[in-house]
Amino acid sequence: MQDLLVPLLLLLFIVIAIGVAVYNMKQVAKLRKQLEESQNETRALVQNLRNETHAMGSGSIGVGQRLREVEKKLNQAMERQVELEQKDPGSLPYTYAIRLVEMGASAKDLVDNCGLARVEADLISLVHSEIKRKGFQARDIT
Asked: Global pTM?
C-alpha cells in the first residue's frame, strides 16, 4: 500500500499543480484583458484631450485675429477723429479753451483769449470742473 501511496501523492500534487497553473493562466489572461481595456480607455482620453486642446488653440487664434481687427478699426477711428478735429476750424477755439481751463484759466480768460461767448466759456469751465472732480482728464472723454 505504501508503494501506491507515493505515486498517488505525486499524481495528486501534479493535478493540483496543473489546476493552480490553469487558474493562474486564467487570472493572467483576465489581467491582460483589463490592462488592454485600460490602455484603450487611456488612449481615448488622450485623443479627446488632444482634440479639445486643438479646438481651444484654434478658438484662441480666431479671438486673437478678431482682437487685432478691432484694434485696427479703433486706431483708424481715432485717426479719423483727429483728422476731423484738425479740419474743423470751428473746433479749434474749443480745443484751445479746454487746454486753457486744464491749466487753470477762468471763464473770463476763455472769453478774452478764445473769442467764445460767456455762456460757452461758463459751460466749458463747468464741464471741466466736473471732470476734474471725478478724476478724469478731457482727453479721456474725447
From this structure: 0.40
